[in-house]
């Protein structure tokens, strides 16, 4: 059990006013942010480099798709179980142990040199996919142990942007690494990222948590009962299902939208995604700096509606003005409401129940998002060809608007 340090040394949780107070006054939260950026950058390096290497090795798009599917399925099947583990075990030790096991599990990839060894890639993909489900619920459930409640919106806005920063850095680095040094370079970069992340998280000073008094199965069942009975949790599950469905649609049709509707090429698509990431980072910083005092349910509902309206404008404007630059402006502007909505959502997920069920709720929400994102991908493949690309993307935008209205309409008396 880790003893909490004195408050003036950056203890858990630190109380400080504004973004500067959060970052300067909380050494542990800074280290958690750094660990998230570093480990997720390594994830993007390996996912980008490995996908390219597998296709280069096998010449098969099926092999690449199979690897990605194996990696993502555990999020659907095991998210709620991972959340229960985050409630049963010390979260800091869980994060450290998972990083170490992930680093060790990547080493067999160094033996892959020919197509007949693709089974090694699939085995590693399964290993990393299963262990990777443990990280998000444990990290998100840990944040309220490091940060005072009045700083949670700011903290979540910053923490959510770790993935965007990692995406910008890791995707580029992964492509360079696999071209310059092959699969070995990619693997060693990701192993190093997990090792650094583990060291940073091992140094976190978190308060001790009581040991679980129920069995694993009993605690998992209790989490499901909570989701079924708790109106606030049900509302968040419904929101996440709508958002996941829309994300699956958008991720599938973004490239066809740029190519077919905007008439752009691969460079335009790359620029579109880069602006999206930069807009998300800028939006997260703006929320952390200026919206930290906002009520999380107001932030979630209102920002989701604005996000949906911005996306709607993005999808329909080419019908009148078939040019690329408005898309870049709109996808960048969408970063602020998207970041605000995510900060509000994560804060509500962390505070809608007591600490002993926090991981289970976050894990369940993650599973709902992963499952509906897969469904959205399938729907996009069907509807994109029947309704059309723009009409299907407008369904995604409309879903966001409906989700935001649901939060604002039903949160009184449900979310504290």
Number of domains: 2
Q: How many helices in DSSP terms?
A: 16
Q: Could you list the spans in which at least 5 consecutive residues all have pLDDT below 50? A: 1-12
- Average pLDDT confidence is 84
What is the count of β-strands? Answer: 0
Distance between the termini: 31 Å
Major sheet:
none
In the CATH hierarchy, the architecture of the largest domain is Up-down Bundle
- Helix/strand order: HHHHHHHHHHHHHHHH
Main location: membrane
InterPro entries: MFS_dom, MFS_trans_sf, TM_effector
Pfam family, one: MFS_3
Transmembrane segments: 32-55, 61-82, 94-112, 118-135, 235-259, 271-290, 297-317, 323-348, 360-383, 389-410
Write a short abstract of this structure.
The protein has 16 helices and no strands. The chain has 416 residues and is mainly α. The two termini are 31 Å apart.
How would you summarize the topology of this molecule?
Layout: H1 18-24, H2 27-58, H3 61-88, H4 91-106, H5 118-132, H6 135-146, H7 152-160, H8 162-202, H9 216-229, H10 231-261, H11 266-290, H12 296-316, H13 325-333, H14 335-351, H15 358-386, H16 389-410
């Amino acid at each position: 059990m880790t003893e909490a340090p004195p408050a003036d040394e950056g203890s858990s949780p630190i109380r400080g006013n504004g973004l500067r107070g959060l970052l300067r006054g909380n050494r542990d939260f800074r280290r958690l942010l750094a660990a998230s950026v570093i480990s997720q950058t390594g994830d993007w390096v390996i996912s980008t480099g490995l996908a390219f290497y597998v296709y280069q090795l096998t010449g098969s798009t099926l092999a690449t798709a199979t690897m990605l599917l194996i990696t993502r399925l555990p999020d659907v099947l095991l998210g709620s179980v991972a959340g229960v583990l985050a409630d049963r075990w010390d979260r800091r030790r869980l994060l450290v142990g998972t990083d170490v096991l992930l680093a060790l599990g990547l080493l067999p990839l160094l033996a892959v040199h020919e197509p007949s060894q693709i089974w090694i890639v699939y085995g590693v993909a399964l290993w990393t996919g299963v262990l990777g489900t443990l990280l998000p619920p444990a990290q998100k459930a840990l944040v309220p142990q490091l940060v005072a409640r009045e700083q949670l919106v700011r903290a979540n806005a910053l923490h959510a942007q770790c993935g965007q920063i990692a995406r910008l850095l890791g995707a580029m680095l992964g492509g360079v690494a696999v071209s310059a040094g092959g699969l070995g370079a990619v693997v060693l970069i990701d192993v190093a990222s997990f090792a650094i992340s583990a060291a940073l998280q091992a140094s976190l000073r978190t308060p001790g948590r009581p040991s679980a008094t129920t069995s694993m199965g009993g605690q998992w069942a209790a989490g499901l009962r909570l989701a079924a009975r708790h109106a606030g949790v049900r509302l968040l599950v419904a929101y996440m299902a709508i958002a996941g469905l829309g994300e699956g649609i958008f991720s599938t049709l973004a490239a066809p939208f740029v190519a077919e509707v905007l008439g752009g090429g691969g460079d335009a698509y790359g620029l579109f995604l880069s602006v999206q990431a930069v807009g998300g980072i800028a939006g997260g910083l703006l929320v952390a700096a200026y919206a930290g005092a906002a009520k999380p349910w107001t932030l979630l509902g209102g920002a989701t509606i604005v996000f949906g309206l911005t996306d709607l404008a993005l999808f329909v404007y080419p019908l009148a003005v078939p040019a690329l630059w408005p898309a870049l402006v709109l996808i960048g502007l969408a970063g602020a409401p998207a970041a605000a909505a995510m900060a509000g959502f994560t804060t509500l997920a962390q505070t809608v129940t007591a600490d002993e069920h926090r991981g289970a709720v976050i894990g369940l929400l993650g599973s709902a998002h992963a499952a509906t994102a897969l469904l959205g991908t399938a729907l996009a493949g069907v509807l994109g060809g029947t309704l059309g690309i723009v009409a299907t993307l407008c369904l995604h935008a409309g879903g966001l608007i409906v989700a935001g209205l649901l939060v604002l309409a039903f949160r009184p008396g449900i979310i504290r």
